[in-house]
TrEMBL record, chain A:
Residues 650-669 are annotated as: Disordered. Keywords: DNA-binding, Mitochondrion, Nucleus, Repeat, RNA-binding, Transcription, Transcription regulation, Transit peptide, Transport. The gene is LRPPRC. It comes from Tursiops truncatus. Residues 222-331 form the PROP1-like PPR domain. PPR repeats lie at residues 197-231, 232-266, 748-782, 955-989. This is Leucine-rich PPR motif-containing protein, mitochondrial. One of its GO terms (molecular function) is mRNA 3'-UTR binding. One of its GO terms (cellular component) is mitochondrion.
UniProtKB/TrEMBL annotation, chain B:
It comes from Sousa chinensis. Its main location: mitochondrion. Pfam families: RRM_1. Signal peptide: none annotated. RNA-binding protein that acts as a nuclear receptor corepressor. Probably acts by binding the SRA RNA, and repressing the SRA-mediated nuclear receptor coactivation. Binds the STR7 loop of SRA RNA. Also able to repress glucocorticoid (GR), androgen (AR), thyroid (TR) and VDR-mediated transactivation. This is SRA stem-loop-interacting RNA-binding protein, mitochondrial. Residues 19-96 form the RRM domain. It comes from the Eukaryota. Keywords: Mitochondrion, Nucleus, Phosphoprotein, Repressor, RNA-binding, Transcription, Transcription regulation, Transit peptide.
Length: 1369, 111
């Protein structure tokens, strides 16, 4: 501002000093001269500006203090102050750097001032002062118009003008040679009740003099004298001009004498007035004489003065003298801006030739060929519509003079910017003639112009022009600049053909294809690719295809297109071939997505990969590794195994022989082992490779085989692999082995975290905590991402309702100091109870967290729920606590947000209108972000609405947030309404707010009704992240809620609703629902959900437990084939199904007589028997049963006998239990089989001394109540011998009870007595049934009973015994 | 709450370091093909982007060149002057957005 304001101020004070020292004269430069086209004091402006700036700041502070109590004024005032500073700085900078102000800048500052709340006098002054010679690029009349516009507008807006403003206006008039009536001007001042001062009179005199009106000037002069105002040099200089313009050069010359007589020595200003006067007359001789005179005196004319003489000559029509005067110029560096301004002024005055002459005379250093001079001239010529021919000539001359390296290109640039089509055309032709290439993108700015107006004819013209000049539009041209002009892509082709400007059909077709891809129109892509006959490179299509894929989530189309590109001979058959091309495409596809996008679309991607696998699409190993790294960095390692399936394995890449395959390594390993050489390195390499191939089974096998040669690295990788495969047991084992190998070895942080996650998930809490402890002990690097992972572990457990896991892990993490107990980290503690709808506990936990850690996790959610449920007492409790601990204001905000969130706007309004409440920007922002994240438009709108009168509320910030949300929803109407509301509220939008608003409008093809603040370094990235829609989110949440509340019917209905709306949830949601349905024994629906999930999320898998449950249910429903498939699926996923699930399936198969299936299962679970807990007997029993069911009794018996009698027994005899088989045979009343089995059992006992089968059979017969058969099988002597042979048998409860029963039936008191004594001697605990029987036997035999006879009936004890067997304690 | 935490995690995502040159002061006459042509003298240009402002039809004078290897990038950076259409470009290595943490993986260690 200094540069602008100072002269006026100084003049106000300078009246008393008739003669000015040089330095001050420089400072006061402007006002002295009628034609002053240059701004002076470039060198000083900075310092003075600084001083003034700080003054402004002081003013601001004082004002702030004063306004402190005027609530509303404060914040807006502060902003105005800073805006004024900003405007000042920009204008001042401009003046300092270039000596001028670009019109656009002034306009911007003006608009800003108009929009701002207060328009102070200073600002008005600043603006008015800028409308004179500081605008050399504007015609004189335009400048004055501008000044008037500012004057009127600001006056209307309430700015109060003082004399300084009038004087500034006068100054502008003088500089712009504006013809006006000084008397009218005085009248105007009088009306406004403003007293003219000396400066006013001085300038009025100058105004008269400029018109050559000496009489008028004299009148004012007389007036000054009566007022006793001093007559200064400026007045005399004006009089020189006045006389000269009146045609009286003699008197003009005489003024100098008059001055001297009046005691004022003529200074440079006076001489300059004289020189200009002569120049206007074209009197070169007098000019030269006067110049000599000045040189002889001790006076000194500066370059700027000389330049003015040149201007006078050329403007008066004497360009021939310019060169002579130019010689006088010393070309001081600091006058370069003045020279430039003169050149601009000359161009404005249509004196371009003179301008060029001066330009070419500039002594610009030409050493550095890269720096160009003269651009400003060319640009201004373009603006001023200098004819093309002239411009071409100028360009040539500048180039010849080596002043500018690329004047043609630069001028073309200007012409394009100004959208001057004809000039651009001419220049392009000239460029071509000069041998420069004409590039396609040169035409884009022209197309943009037409595109904005949807001017189809204009577009067609440009395209014709391109053709004429020999440039073929490329795909970008069509896509970015041609298509947007049309309503539909389809109409473009017709119109262009009609107009004969479709010359390269293939390029156009490809552009068409790409735009459809970008729009997500995959159907079109597919049909195009299918019918296309043109050569088309996949690479050119890749980018658009990726966008298209991300736009359309139709996985089937994804796969079909990929397959087509992969397989079809038209597309990527040339080297490097389809494998590489498709692999690279997949890599790029994933790379183009953000982590959150990949996470959100995990299931879609999985489905895609699976479909590709089924289509036999392969990708190279090295690209797979790239994808793997990407997925790892996106935190979705679960997808790695799905991509891994696509790796091309059979073909070893001949180019990369350095990369051996796993089988190479394996044979190498064996060879080394055989040669007894160290194998550590190769082993590790192989393990790492297997891990990267996701081959857990093989890797573990290898580890087991070469355990002693394992190194730390191999273990680390294996642990990670097992974690990835959710195998907690094995991971833990490996970790132990890892520790045994080197207890000081440290894993990567991420591996520790994964271990904790897997262990926690599988309920191995203590082990998980131990891992955490180890992390602490070994000082593992904890990154922010680690803390976040902790949160996810806890949150996952909380959502699963695993209270202990959450509590213990959280406790461990916090007490170990691995992470600070932040609000986020501790929120799962509360989530646990919120999910269960246990509000009192949730609140308690939150409060407890505050007591422990000074944080209040999820207080907002707790409050919302409390409000929803109307828990007045708990709300009161929460509020009392918050209020007491964190202050009333925090409490009010908490309550305000909770009411807003729950839609209780009336209550919210009451809260926010509490007297004394003021804005808390961070809290408001928090809520805004929350609303944006969850797309709560209404809530956010209400927030903005309700905070309108909130003290110190940053309205712009809130509206900015609102706009952000509208942008997400593409809601330009509401955004537009915001624009109006902001004006209504008198808010000055910040630049970014305007830019955002403009972006929203533009995105919806709306006109932007304001000047968008420029941004220099704009981020080009347009992210297209498509997060799940709000509908999806809310439905999913509803569904999960229903699942947690175990409301299977509700949950299933939500599922059906979503299905109808084509909403697909994530797999976890489906898994929860399926679990619930299975638990509620609703298999039909469960299968329905599973089928849906499977068809919509291809890689959808149930976890072990769910699959087991499903198998059980399917068995129950007799869907044995399906159950078998489920089992296969589970095993393929390396899950461990539960024992009961497998057993049930086997048994069901047996009862169906389906031997084959049982044998299949046996093969399937081969090797896993121990993990499942499956006895081999299950197979033996059931296969036999199945055979019996198939009437192959002999075969069954033969098998069993063979197993028991052949030499190589796989089972120890005592475990060879056939009880199940026997029971089933009895239950199923398979009499012939029972008979043959009895024979077999006796034979085994008699001939082979194998007693187990016979014992089992006997017990089963007894159990089944077939006492006679039992007795037949076991005659007492046999029993005795049996007891002798296998004494431990008697100690079995079933056995002794049965034996006693048989003695009782035989009334064999002696044997019974012996048995009793034998048992009591061995301290065997006897059951009541046994005792009852024995007692009755003794009583019947008339003997005494040596113990208290159990009082109840046989039936009672039999029942009791049976129950106790069924429910073992 | 979980969502916002997840977003923060996104911000934390460490940039995989790629051999990318950031080029400024590209003359308006040059577009990506000219840049690609110029920089291919230093190695294989995998990707070359000069984003255009669709509002004006001009680019903003900035672009990115991705090379196949660090070495090629180094070659390009070694060259003092890069001139296209008579205009000197400013070429520098693209700074990675976030520092990567622990660089050595436990899998690399054998003890």
């Amino acid at each position: 501002m200094a540069a602008l304001l100072r002269p006026a101020r100084w003049l106000l004070r300078a009246g008393a000093a008739p003669h000015l020292p040089l330095s001050l004269r420089l400072l006061a430069g402007g006002p002295r001269r009628p034609h002053a086209a240059f701004c002076p004091h470039a060198a000083r402006a900075g310092r003075v500006a600084g001083a003034l700036l700080s003054q402004a700041r002081l003013y601001a502070i004082a004002a702030e203090k004063k306004n402190y109590l005027q609530e509303e004024a404060t914040s807006s005032h502060r902003r105005n102050t800073s805006q004024f500073d900003w405007a000042l700085m920009r204008l001042d900078n401009s003046v300092r750097r270039t000596g001028r102000i670009p019109k656009t800048l002034l306009q911007k500052v003006f608009d800003n001032t108009c929009h701002s709340g207060s328009r102070g006098g200073n600002q008005a002054l600043l603006l008015l002062r800028s409308c004179g010679s500081l605008l050399p690029e504007l015609k004189l009349s335009e400048r004055t118009e501008f000044a008037h516009r500012i004057w009127d507008k600001l006056q209307k807006l309430g700015t109060v003008y003082d004399v300084s403003h009038y004087n500034a206006l006068l100054k502008v008039y003088l500089q712009n040679e504006y013809k006006f009536s000084p008397t009218d001007f005085l009248e105007k001042m009088e009306k406004a009740n403003i007293q003219p001062n000396r400066v006013t009179y001085q300038r009025l005199i100058a105004a008269y003099c400029n018109m050559g009106d000496i009489e008028g000037a004299s009148k004012i002069l007389g007036f000054m004298k009566t007022k006793d105002l001093p007559v200064t040099e400026a007045v005399f200089s004006a009089l020189v001009t006045g006389h000269a313009r009146a045609g009286d050069m003699e008197n003009a010359e005489n003024i100098l004498t008059v001055m001297k007589e009046a005691g004022i020595e003529p200074g440079p200003d006076t001489y300059l007035a004289l020189l200009n006067a002569y120049a206007e007359k074209g009197d070169i001789d007098h000019v030269k004489q006067t110049l000599e005179k000045v040189e002889k005196s001790d006076l000194y004319l500066m370059d700027r003065d000389i330049l003015q003489i040149i201007f006078s000559f050329s403007k008066a029509g004497y360009p021939q003298y310019v060169s002579e005067i130019l010689e006088k110029i010393t070309y001081e560096r600091r006058y370069i801006p003045d020279t430039m301004n003169l050149i601009l002024l000359l161009v404005t005055e249509k004196l371009e030739d003179t301008a060029l002459q001066i330009l070419l005379a500039c002594p610009i250093s030409r050493e550095d060929s890269l720096s160009d001079f003269g651009s400003f001239f060319l640009r201004h010529c373009v603006t001023m519509n200098t004819p093309a021919e002239k411009l071409k000539d100028y360009c040539k001359k500048l180039k010849e003079a080596q002043m500018h390296t690329s004047p043609f290109q630069f001028t073309l640039h200007c012409a394009l910017l100004a959208k001057k089509m004809d000039l651009a055309k001419a220049l392009m032709k000239a460029l071509k003639e000069e041998g420069f290439p004409i590039r396609t993108h040169y035409f884009w700015p022209l197309l943009v112009g037409h595109q904005k107006e949807k001017n189809v004819q204009g577009i067609v013209e440009v395209l014709k022009e391109m053709h004429e000049i020999g440039v073929t539009p490329d795909q970008e041209t069509y896509i970015n600049y041609v298509f947007p002009c049309f309503d539909s892509v389809k109409s473009v082709r017709a119109i262009l053909q009609e107009n004969g400007c479709l010359h390269e059909d293939s390029i156009f077709s490809q552009a068409e294809l790409r735009i459809e891809a970008v729009n997500g129109n995959l159907d079109y892509i597919l049909s195009f690719l299918e019918s296309n006959t043109l050569p088309l490179s996949f690479a050119s299509l890749r980018g658009s295809l990726i966008l298209g894929f991300r736009r359309s989530m139709n996985i089937n189309l994804w796969s079909k297109i990929t397959k087509l590109l992969y397989k079809d001979g038209r597309y990527c058959q040339e080297p490097p071939g389809p494998t590489e091309a498709v692999g690279y495409f997949l890599y790029n596809l994933i790379d183009s997505m953000s982590d959150s996008e990949v996470q959100a679309k995990e299931e879609h991607l999985r489905q895609y990969f699976h479909q590709l696998m089924e289509m036999n699409v392969k990708i190279p190993e090295n690209i797979y590794r790239g994808i793997r790294n990407l997925l790892d960095s996106y935190h979705v390692p679960e997808l790695i195994k799905d991509v891994n399936m696509l790796v091309e394995r059979e073909k070893t890449d001949s180019r990369k022989t350095t990369q051996p395959t796993s089988s190479d390594l394996e044979s190498k390993l064996e060879k080394l082992k055989a040669e007894n050489q160290p194998i550590g390195d190769v082993l590790k390499q192989l393990i790492l490779m297997l891990c990267s191939e996701e081959n857990m089974h093989k890797a573990l096998e290898l580890k087991a085989k070469y355990e002693s040669d394992m190194v730390i690295g191999g273990y680390a990788s294996l642990i990670n692999l097992c974690c990835r495969h959710d195998n907690a047991e094995e991971a833990l084992n490996l970790k132990r082995e890892f520790d045994r190998l080197d207890s000081s070895a440290v894993l990567d942080t991420s591996k520790y975290v994964r271990l904790v996650k897997v262990l926690g998930k599988h309920g191995k809490l203590q082990d998980a905590i131990n891992i955490l402890k180890e992390m602490k002990e070994k000082d593992v690097l904890i990154k922010d991402a680690t803390v976040l992972s902790f949160f996810h572990i806890l949150n996952g457990a909380a959502l699963r309702g695993e209270t202990e896991t959450v509590k213990q892990l959280h406790e461990a993490i916090v007490t170990l100091g691995l992470a600070k107990p932040s609000t986020t980290l501790s929120s799962p503690l509360v989530t646990l109870y919120l999910e269960k709808d246990d509000l009192p506990t949730a609140l308690e936990v939150t409060i407890d967290c505050y007591k422990k850690y000074k944080i209040l996790p999820r207080i907002h959610d707790v409050l919302c729920k409390l409000i929803e449920k109307g828990e007045t007492d708990l709300i009161q409790k929460a509020m009392d606590f918050v209020s007491q601990e964190q202050g009333e204001m925090t409490m009010l905000y908490d309550l305000f947000f909770a009411f807003l969130q729950t839609g209780n706007y009336k209550e919210a309004k009451k809260i926010i209108e509490t007297p004394g409440i003021r804005a808390r920007p961070t809290r408001l922002q928090w809520f805004c972000d929350r609303c944006i994240a969850s797309n709560q438009v209404e809530t956010l709108e209400k927030l903005v609405e309700l905070t309108q009168k909130l003290f110190e509320c940053d309205r712009d910030q809130l509206y900015y947030s609102l706009l952000k949300l509208y942008k997400v929803n593409g809601d330009w109407q509401r955004a537009d309404a915001v624009w109006n509301k902001m004006q209504e509220e008198n808010i000055i939008p910040r630049g970014r707010t305007l830019r955002l608003l403009a972006e929203i409008l533009r995105n919806s093809n709306q006109e932007v009704p304001f000047d968008v603040p420029e941004l220099w370094y704009e981020d080009e990235k347009h992210s297209l992240t498509s997060s799940p829609s709000p509908v999806e989110v809310s439905l999913q949440k509803e569904l999960l809620n229903a699942c947690h509340r175990k409301k299977d019917k509700d949950a299933f209905n939500i599922f059906l609703k979503a299905k109808k709306q084509n909403v697909v949830f994530n797999s976890e949601t489906y898994a929860s629902l399926i679990n619930l349905l299975l638990m509620k024994d609703n298999p039909t629906q469960a299968v329905q959900v599973k089928d849906f999930a499977e068809t919509h999320i291809k890689g959808f898998t149930l976890n072990d437990a769910a699959n087991s449950r499903l198998i059980i249910t399917q068995v129950r429903r007799d869907y044995l084939k399906d159950a078998l498939t489920t089992l296969k699926t589970a095993l393929d996923l390396e899950q461990i199904p539960s024992r009961i699930a497998v057993t049930r399936l086997i048994q069901a198969c047996a009862l169906k007589g389906d031997t084959e299936s049982i044998q299949d299962i046996q093969k399937l679970v081969n090797g896993l028997e121990d993990s499942i807990g499956l006895s081999r007997m299950v197979f033996i029993n059931n296969i036999a049963l199945a055979q019996i069911k198939n009437s192959n009794i002999d075969g069954a018996i033969e098998n069993i006998e063979n197993m028991l009698t052949s030499g190589n027994q796989t089972m120890e005899l005592q475990y060879f239990g056939l009880a199940y088989l026997f029971r089933k045979v009895i239950e199923e009343r398979l009499e012939p089989a029972l008979e043959k089995i009895s024979i077999m059992a006796e034979r085994l006992a008699n001939q082979f001394a194998i007693y187990k089968p016979v014992t089992d059979l006997f017990l089963q017969l007894v159990d089944a109540g077939k006492v006679d058969d039992a007795r037949a099988l076991l005659q007492a002597p046999t029993v005795k011998s049996l007891l002798e042979l296998i004494p431990e048998l008697t100690e079995k409860e079933e056995a002794y009870t049965s034996i006693m029963k048989s003695y009782v039936l035989d009334s064999d008191v002696a044997s019974a007595k012996a048995l009793y004594e034998n048992l009591t001697a061995k301290d065997v605990k006897l059951n009541d049934l046994f005792l009852k029987r024995y007692a009755v036997l003794l009583k019947n035999a008339g003997e005494s009973v040596p113990f208290t006879e159990p009082p109840e009936s046989f039936e009672f004890y039999a029942k009791q015994l049976k129950e106790s067997k069924e429910n073992p304690l | 709450m979980a969502a916002s935490a997840a977003r923060r995690a996104v911000a934390l995502r460490t940039n995989i370091r790629r051999p990318v040159a950031f080029v400024r002061k590209i003359p308006w006459t040059a577009a990506s093909s000219e840049l690609r042509e110029h920089f291919s003298q230093f190695g294989h240009v995998r990707k070359c982007t000069v984003p255009f402002d669709k509002e004006t039809g001009f680019h903003r004078g900035m672009g990115w060149i991705q090379f196949s290897s660090e070495e090629e990038l180094h070659n390009a950076l070694q060259q003092e002057n890069h001139v296209i259409d008579g205009v000197k470009l400013h070429v520098q290595a693209q700074k990675p957005k976030a520092l990567q943490g622990d660089q050595t993986s436990d899998e690399e260690r054998d003890f």
